[in-house]
Design goal:
It comes from Pavo cristatus. The structure is a single chain. The chain contains twelve helices and twelve strands. The protein is an alpha/beta fold. Helix 1 (6-40) packs across helix 2 and helix 1 packs across helix 4. The protein has one domain (6-332). It has helices at 6-40, 45-57, 70-73, 77-84, 113-119, 126-129, 149-156, 163-171, 185-188, 206-214, 240-252, 297-318; strands at 87-91, 101-106, 134-139, 158-160, 177-181, 197-199, 217-224, 231-232, 259-262, 270-271, 279-283, 330-332. The mean pLDDT is 90. The longest helix is centred in the first third of the chain and has 35 residues, at 6-40.
């Protein structure tokens, strides 16, 4: 049997890096929760009791900036994760460490691969491109109620997408903080078919209000290729399956997408791993925002419009460079 080539070894390392990430994202929290409940009924019940006590003691930590571990961000597995797609970060303008920022991350896609790789791992060189800037990524607050999964998320720099958590990072953590928010959220994941770029943004203005209240500059970013990682079953508007998805999203905060990717052993087989498609995240020009503690609706609308125009310019200036055609348009609903 011939020895595997270096190319084969790299390919398997990349596949394993993506596999551990997908399994951690989908299974770490639920499996750990079931395990701790099971241990309650065994002689190992003190383990569950001690962890419950720890969670109660540590309950507010996610809302206060989390517990970032720089060593996890430098984990070598993230380089293999980056190279699987590959993922690339592009800077168009400098970000001054003397300000705080809210980075709008678009589109959501299925698993937010571009946002995670660029803002949570150090594999794409964020700290070198933007020296003095500390990136954070927000996610559903419910994820921080799952045992061990909460520790995993906080160690990378993830925080709940709540007013309290974002406000803490923008007001009590000094300057040089960049809080990335996937603004379209779970609802946007229902419309991420290849060739169609639909952003749920028209009525999402809470991030603009937060930016005004804390004087944080608004920065648009777009991950070209994010919607190409999976194949999604898109149900027609008005169908009962679409109605179930939308109702579930409103009640639970996330949408039950029906999607598939590549298999573990073959690209041609169907599975739950993302396809290897290039992702290029372009960080645009900051929109300067004044500090207004009680901004009016008119002021919020003004800066929301400025942000949307900046995002559209970013998309149109870069779409042909990173895989889209001249005729592709960005649809904002």
């Amino acid at each position: 049997v011939p020895w595997p080539s270096q190319r084969d070894v790299r390919a398997w390392l990349q596949l394993l890096a993506v596999l551990q990430w997908v399994l951690s994202f989908l299974l770490l929290g639920p499996v750990t929760l079931v395990l701790l409940i099971y241990l309650v009924f065994t002689r190992f019940w003190p383990i569950s009791a001690l962890y419950l006590a720890w969670v109660i003691f540590d309950w507010d930590t996610p809302e206060k900036g989390g517990r970032r571990l720089p060593c996890l961000r430098r984990w070598s597995v993230w380089r293999h994760f980056r190279d699987y797609f590959p993922v690339k970060l592009v800077k168009t303008h400098d970000l001054s460490p003397g300000h705080n920022y809210i980075i709008g991350s678009h589109p959501h896609g299925i698993l937010c691969v571009g946002a995670f790789c660029n803002f949570i791992t150090g594999s794409t060189g964020f700290s070198k491109l933007f020296p003095g800037i500390r990136p954070f990524l927000t996610t559903l607050a419910g994820n921080f109620r799952l045992p061990l999964f909460r520790e995993y998320l906080m160690s990378g720099g993830l925080c709940p997408v709540t007013r309290r958590a974002i406000g803490h990072l923008l007001s009590k953590n000094g300057t040089g903080n960049a809080v990335a928010i996937v603004i379209g959220g779970a609802a946007e994941s229902l419309s991420c078919s290849p060739g169609i770029t639909t952003l749920i943004l028209k009525n999402r203005k809470g991030f603009v209000r937060m930016a005004l209240q804390h004087g944080a500059f608004l920065v648009p970013s777009f991950s070209f290729g994010e919607n190409e990682l999976f194949r999604q079953v898109v149900f027609e508007e008005g169908s009962w399956m679409r109605a179930v998805q939308q109702r579930f999203q409103k009640m639970m905060g996330f949408a039950p997408c029906v999607f598939y990717g590549r298999g573990l052993t073959s690209v041609r087989s169907r599975g739950f791993l993302p396809y290897a498609r290039p992702i290029t995240t372009v960080v645009g020009e900051p929109v300067m925002v004044p500090k207004i503690e009680e901004p009016s609706s008119e002021v919020v609308d003004l800066y929301h419009g400025m942000y949307v125009r900046s995002l559209l310019k970013l998309f149109n200036d870069n779409k042909t460079k990173y895989g889209l055609s001249e005729g592709d348009e960005l649809r904002i609903v």
